[in-house]
Design goal:
The complex is a heterodimer of chains A (267) and B (248).
Chain A: H1 5-29, H2 33-53, H3 57-78, H4 83-104, H5 112-117, H6 125-154, H7 156-161, H8 166-188, H9 193-207, H10 211-236, H11 240-266
Chain B: E1 7-18, E2 21-32, E3 36-40, H1 47-55, E4 62-67, E5 72-75, H2 89-93, H3 101-110, H4 126-139, E6 144-148, H5 156-173, E7 176-180, H6 184-187, E8 193-197, E9 201-205, H7 207-212, H8 214-220, E10 238-239, E11 245-246
Parallel strand pairs in B: 3-7, 3-8, 5-6, 6-7
Antiparallel strand pairs in B: 1-2, 1-4, 8-9, 10-11
Helix pairs in contact in B: 3-4
Classes of the chains: A mainly alpha (267), B alpha/beta (248).
Chain lengths: 267, 248
């Protein structure tokens, strides 16, 4: 059944959408979209390391992105630069170093476009295992830290005062971010992963009045984006990542009409 | 909890500095089960800082904090809910604890905002929001309640009713309460022990003692001991830039 590349891509996309939905909510609530971008950019470095050392790509990306996240935390404490400047510094320098490293690896033929924008043809049966097992683990851990993470998203001091250990939850969440990037990079591409995280969630925000609803709607939005995006990618021979994100954008635009309605009802 | 004397939290000569400036220094106090301790003092005197030290929010502190309970309810002074997070009152009530629906209803009824249960937090008025904050803190039946200006934005009659409620809660739950207020007059009846702060402990004792105390009068003005508090900052001592007391 997984012989057909398109079925594989579809199954991979469904797995990714289930994870990006809930994680994306926290990215939006905690204002981490630029942080997600930085981790995704650093993934390129992870890919080159994987090729050089002949290592599993997902594991390599996961480790590189986690290290970049750690460096960020250290820099935030050690320098007087604002957070967004540090994020930009790390995002672009790790992307640049990754591209330079690829230039040196002349003995390997790289599909740079595939890395940046995703490639459905590249999804193998092994990738499916990585996505579904990795994804299930991410969701399980997220469920375990949900209470402290959510409470500290609303108010850090409340969570700390009432004994929920928000710092640990935050650290674990950072690792989960690195993990989702590692498993979804082949499919969505490193430039567009943040789009997959925040656009279905932004759509969900327009449709929800409570956090649970927002999580469910952003999963549904992600799933619809994957279906529409992949079918149009097949139909029009467009790269998979941009097609999925463009589909998410269309859904977001539709969701704006719902807001307009609610505002009119209120007036 | 410590068995002999019912102490829930004990601060011993604690201090906290930020950017090389002491926000508070040398503060000792304790909150016992069934007792209400009130912190008063002018703006910037370190009331909230002291509460945050007691709660363990500030970690690099001087001195010791001994806590004998982990069941704590907290009403912070400032809390802003981001519009990106859709949150109803009932979602907020379950923020740190998994409560049964009737515990939730009971707390919301006590503070008089049960009708707001399904409302979005962003649509509440300041006074309503304050009542929801208080309801959330008491709903889990804590052993220690820390209330940082819990009645701000509440109208005057509501304010008195809420202080009466706080008094009632401390009796009913037999919990200790650390209350922060800038207005001694309204909390007079609802407190057992007052600590007057101004970067350090200026004076402490029963509400009446403190109101008569000269340092308190110097800090809040003469009328304060009879009528409402006035923010006059007259000192019998001076502070150096890092918050230390200058010896005259």
């Amino acid at each position: 059944m997984f012989d057909d590349f398109f079925i594989r891509a579809l199954v991979a996309g469904i797995g990714i959408a289930f994870v990006t939905g809930p994680l994306g909510c926290f990215v939006v609530w905690r204002r981490l979209s630029y942080f997600g971008d930085t981790l995704a950019h650093s993934a390129l470095l992870g890919v080159t390391i994987a090729y050089t050392l002949e290592f599993n790509i997902a594991v390599s990306i996961f480790i590189t992105s986690s290290i970049i996240a750690l460096i960020l935390v250290k820099l935030e404490k050690k320098t007087n630069l604002p957070g967004d400047a540090l994020l930009g510094l790390l995002a672009h320098s790790s992307l640049a170093v990754g591209l330079v490293a690829i230039g040196f690896l002349t003995f390997i033929r790289f599909d740079i476009m595939g890395l940046l924008f995703g490639d459905i043809l590249a999804v193998t049966t092994d990738d499916l295992l990585t996505i579904w097992i990795g994804g299930a683990l991410i969701l399980l851990v997220l469920k375990l830290i949900w209470k402290p993470l959510f409470a500290s998203t609303v108010n850090y001091e409340l969570a700390e005062a009432e004994g929920l250990n928000p710092d640990r939850a935050k650290a674990i969440f950072t690792i989960l971010m690195a993990a989702i990037i590692a498993i979804s990079i082949k499919m969505v591409g490193l430039l567009l992963i943040t789009g997959m995280l925040i656009i279905p969630t932004a759509m969900a925000r327009n449709l929800s009045d409570n956090p649970q609803k927002m999580v469910i709607f952003s999963i549904i939005g992600g799933l619809l984006s994957v279906f529409i995006g992949l079918f149009s990618s097949l139909e029009f021979n467009t790269p998979s990542g941009p097609s999925i994100v463009a589909a998410a954008l269309v859904l977001f635009i539709f969701s704006l009409f719902k807001i307009k309605q609610t505002i009119q009802l209120k007036n | 909890m410590s068995i002999e004397n019912n102490i829930l939290v004990k601060l011993n000569e604690v201090g906290f500095q930020q950017n090389k400036k002491w926000l508070v220094k040398g503060v000792s106090l304790q909150v016992e089960r069934g007792k209400i301790v009130t912190l008063i003092g002018p703006n910037g005197s370190g009331k909230s800082t002291t509460a945050k030290i007691a709660l363990g929010i500030y970690k690099n502190i001087e001195g010791q904090v001994e806590k004998f309970t982990n069941n704590i309810g907290y009403v912070p002074q400032k809390i802003s809910i981001d519009w990106t997070l859709p949150l109803r009152v009932k979602d907020f009530m379950l923020l740190t604890d998994n409560l049964k629906d009737d515990a939730l209803d009971e707390a919301l009824t006590l503070t008089g905002v049960k009708h707001l249960k399904d409302k979005n937090l962003g649509n509440l008025s300041g006074g309503e929001f304050q009542r929801v904050l208080l309801a959330r803190a008491i709903s889990k039946k804590p052993e220690l309640l820390v209330l940082d200006e819990p009645v701000q934005g509440v109208d005057f009659t509501g304010e008195i009713a809420l202080y009466e409620l706080i008094k009632k809660i401390s009796e009913k739950l037999n919990c200790g309460i650390l209350l922060i207020s800038h207005d001694l007059h309204t909390v007079m009846t609802a407190t057992d022990h007052v600590v007057c702060l101004n970067g350090h402990v200026c004076c402490s004792g029963s509400p009446k003692d403190v109101a008569r105390n000269n340092e308190y009068k110097a800090l809040f003005g003469e009328q304060a001991s009879q009528t409402l508090s006035v923010y006059e900052h007259k000192h019998d001592h001076e502070h150096s830039n890092d918050g230390e007391i200058k010896k005259n």
